[in-house]
Write the structure tokens for this entry.
Amino acid sequence: MSENSLKFNGQVITAEKIIINTGASPFIPKIRSLDQISSLTNRSILDLTTLPESLLIIGGGFIGVEFAQMFARFGSEVTILQKADRLVPGTDPEISKVLFKVFEKEKIRWP
């Protein structure tokens, strides 16, 4: 096996770049009255059996923007609330600019 390979379930997979994205634990922010409404996490949203008409996503990190774009493309009206001054704040600012332009075209709101 080379440095660009990994073994998974007995199969060797080779690629130029290997990204291991194992997910994250849900974080419920302390927002007044949030515990009194129906809400979803990055895990429970995958259990939906019907498409929500609208969706408010709290957090504009990688997981938040992935779900925002996915549900917008499915047909939900999506708004992202992000505490930082840009989306995916841990990345190069150019990435945020590109995302903002793409999300504008896809009608994903980000106040």
Notes: The beta strands are 5-8, 11-14, 54-58, 77-81. The chain is about 25% helix and 15% strand.
